Amino acid sequence: MSKHVLGVYHSKDEVIQAIEEVQNEGYSVNDLSILANTRDFPYSIQNETGVSTEDLGEAENTRTYKEKGFFENLFSALEVNTTSDHNEISYYDHLVGLGFDNAAARDYEKDLNSGKILLLVDSGTGTFTAPSAGGITGTSVIDQTTLDTDTLGTNKERSLKLREEQLDVTKERVQTGEVEVRKDVVEEQKTVHVPVTHEEVYVERRTVGDAAIDDTAAATTKPIGDEETIRVPIVEEKVEVTKKPVVTEELVIGKRQATETEQVTENIKREEARVETDGDATVDETTIDRNRLNEDRL
């Protein structure tokens, strides 16, 4: 199966980023492969992404001497005589064996010899414009056989999708605190004024007249000197204090939802189109609101 170049990249990070973006577009790692200078190629890319590395030995055997042609074999032989590095002279044959034309194979061979990394995709897996990681221009997934026919007379419209990052805000319930309500016994001194009564004995001395003396003497038969005692009981109120618990207050404990607005700030990326002209080229740039256009059609 022939392959196409998705992009040419300078570093490991650029390749990994491009692979992630391609996977987001629906490509499988089984459809992708990497071709790079084996002297400088970081094999950690294969370990991190799962994308396999092109085996130059297998590609060398995919095309026979007759399939390559006389001039192609002659040029390959000249390369063998001018360099002793097997990896460098096999890039061209490998790319041609993958279905690239001679010019494209030469260009990509120069990229590989300069330390760049090619990201390849199997043909027939769809059409995709490769991301330009770090400013490195990616190659569109277009059949190599149609490149020569993409001439100045082509009026076909092409589209370039611009993407931007959008914030996806989610919420989760986490415990940030705890309220504990309990009862403590507090002792204090309280004074109560209680009115109490008690009995007191009073003695009044009264003067008795002569007539009263005669009547009293007549009524009294006891001789003077006999003892006579009067006992008067005295009663008073004593304060007795007792304590009993009574309910004076009730606490109702519950939870309610309180809503507040929290501000979240994050940096997001977006793609912007940059139109560059060369020479006398003019560009008529307009903006079309497709949603409103569809509404007008309805």
Automatic annotation (TrEMBL):
InterPro entries: DUF2382, GSP17M-like_dom, Stress_Response_Assoc. Residues 5-115 form the General stress protein 17M-like domain. It holds the Pfam family DUF2382. Residues 259-298 are annotated as: Disordered. Residues 160-275 form the DUF2382 domain. Residues 267-277, 287-298 have a biased composition (Basic and acidic residues). This is YsnF/AvaK domain-containing protein. It comes from Metabacillus sediminilitoris. The lineage of its organism: Bacteria, Bacillati, Bacillota, Bacilli, Bacillales.
